[in-house]
Amino acid sequence: MRYLKVLLFIILISCGKEDEVICSSFTPEASDQYIFPLRPGMPEWERFTSGQEKIDALQVPVGILKKMSTYGLVETCLDYPLLGAMMAFDTIQYGVERQMENFNGFHELITRENAGQIMLDRFKQMNPECIPQGDEVVVGDYTLTFVYMGMVQAQFVLIEQLTSSERRELLDEAIKKNTQFENIGDPYSILNLKIEALLMARVMVSEKYEPFLEEIAKNVSIEIFIKYVELNNKIETLNKILEYATEYNK
Q1: Chain segment 9-26, per-residue pLDDT in tens
Q2: Distances from the Cα of 63 to the Cαs of 112, 206, 209, in angstroms?
Q3: pLDDT at position 27
Q4: Rounded to whole angstroms, how far apart are CA atoms 142 and 152?
Q5: Does the global pTM surpass 0.85?
Q6: Is 174:245 a contact under the CB 8 Å cutoff?
Q7: What distance in Å separates the CA atoms of residue 3 and residue 18, rounded to the nearest whole number?
């Protein structure tokens, strides 16, 4: 199975002479990101005979991990070579949980009090309009960075690190990106829209937004979506979540 590479930064490209959108690279505050010595595709990688060997080979040495800044740690976690494997499980929620359990970088990240806030800043600088030039693989990998980043950001352990004001920022950013994905269309897909809806929904749950909690209590489809990120062909679930998020954000 080919693991899709997680891009570490927003690729610096020209968006067109008449386009006012500025596509700039995200630069983390710290430069102590861990550089993985092994990745899928390398000759050494092919010598592994089990999944556990691959997982073990990608752990960050503890001495480095504990000294790493939260900025560098966020970038390291988003660059984890097996992060894209979350797509290979029965549900993407189960997949992201497994990858976060498998990598000691995530273990350390969730202990950092400012992890959620730095993830939020990172998320806000990702621009759906800055699609890189290249073949379908390059473009496809770029669209998936929003999926991987969003799924990590959407975990309650990070959302609940945020202040109420920061959670509103996250919800506002999810609404904004949802609109961008819809306006751009291809190469973005329903998966991108699902992740933004998940962010909105889980923020409203964390904020104990009563109208939305009442909707969950009577709407099994929304309850299932929040737990498993599964729609079961009920696309209207996304629209319903967006309606509540828009009302909450007024």
Answers
A1: 333 333 433 344 567 555
A2: 16, 34, 42
A3: 62
A4: 16
A5: yes
A6: yes
A7: 36
250 falls in which pLDDT band (50, 70, 90)? Answer: confident
Token pair of 48 as six digits: 């592994």
Residue pair 174/119 in contact (Cβ under 8 Å)? The answer is no
Q: How far is CA 73 from the centre of its chain?
A: 15
Structure tokens at 201: 């929904």
Cα torsion at 199, 200, 204, 206 (round to 10°)? 10
Residue in the block written with tokens 């009563």? 210
The Cβ of residue 112 has, within 10 Å, a number of other Cβ atoms equal to 17
Predicted pLDDT of residue 30: 63
Separation CA 171–CA 152 (nearest Å): 15
| Helix%, strand%, coil% for the chain, nearest 5 | 60, 0, 40
Distance CA 116, CA 171 (A): 13
Phi, psi of 161 (to 5 degrees): -75, -20
Residue 83 predicted with pLDDT over 90: yes
Does residue 147 have a pLDDT over 60? yes
Q: Give me the helices (H) in 41-163, please.
A: 51-57, 62-67, 70-78, 92-102, 104-109, 115-124, 136-153, 156-159
